[in-house]
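Audit log entry. Action: structure prediction of a protein-small molecule complex. Ligand: NAP. The ligand was supplied as SMILES and no pocket hint was given, so placement is left entirely to the predictor. Protonation state taken as written. Sequence taken verbatim from the request; no trimming, no tag removal. Recorded inputs:
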Amino acid sequence: MKAAVYTQYGLPGVLQLKEVAKPAPKDNEILLRIKATAVNSGDVRLRKADPFAVRFFFGLLKPKINILGSVFSGEVESVGRNVKRFKIGDEVFGHTDMRFGAYAEYICLPEDGSLALKPVNLSHHEAAAIPFGGVTALHFIKKAVIKPNQKVLVVGASGAVGSAAVQLTKSYGAMVTGVCSTANMDLVKSIGADKVIDYTKEDFTQNGEIYDLIFDAVRTISVSRSLKSLAKNGIMILSAAGMPEMLQGLWISMTSNRKVMTGVISHKAADIIFLKELIERGEFKPVVDRTYPLEEIAEAHAYVDKGHKKGNIILTFIN
Ligand SMILES: NC(=O)c1ccc[n+]([C@@H]2O[C@H](COP(=O)([O-])OP(=O)(O)OC[C@H]3O[C@@H](n4cnc5c(N)ncnc54)[C@H](OP(=O)(O)O)[C@@H]3O)[C@@H](O)[C@H]2O)c1
């Protein structure tokens, strides 16, 4: 089968299209023919080994996992003998968790992994735009327990995680303000934000508004300055936090009545099923910026490297 393989960390050119062995499903696995995947910020971090700590988990000198790609939408081609949840021909979407391997024509996944039947109202390439941002935002938003009419601010509202955070907090009935650049204001309004702040013209920490939840999806806010915009007992989600913000967040949570949430997300099939149901009710939609064929993976990564993508970058397969 065809796959985008990388054997060294570096620039997008390290991703090379190669013929590799097609996998065979174990007893508890499905073999999925992938129709679409996405180039996410997580893939880019692993390709570049950025931050350096990536190397401690994924290979010190060279990557141990050679096929990136953590989300997919495709069709079940065969199933292991113990598989009950899926059958041949099912259209399935989801997240590979920490396995990666979705930059390939086929992947084997355990039937109890983070996957579900594809929403009936989405194409494969739209479905592949859901799991990365959707699962990340949902992980934190479920923990925050949002109530109707609470005031929520989402910073980075035009990105994969931010656009999902806007839609999910709206679905819980919150009043949502999205922070983005001028070019992305219409997009952020179109996915349901009640208000939009253009960060190139306005600093939300200076406008006197107080929010029950501040969700920073892109690690661009100053945590200490943003605290004055957070209600007493408010929650701050820093989904892209590095070690300094994690420690700062821990300190704030321990010494004040505000709570800061950081950390690496976990993956569950229940979250993919939750997103599927939300999509089918029309309360969540994919945000797709550009679509590339797998053959142009280096170009797709180079675009994501620039840091300005809107929502998701999709890779499609001709199979
Ligand atoms: N905790 C976890 O387990 C976890 C899981 C997944 C992802 N993450 C992290 O989450 C981060 C975001 O991921 P993502 O895929 O959503 O990113 P992304 O899609 O690449 O987000 C980029 C978006 O942010 C906007 N942006 C840039 N600067 C901004 C600013 N100052 N204020 C507001 N918006 C700004 C960009 O548009 P403009 O440049 O036009 O503004 C662009 O639309 C990554 O660092 C990733 O590693 C963490």
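Audit: result stored. The CA atoms of residues 85 and 218 lie 36 Å apart. The longest strand covers residues 29-39.
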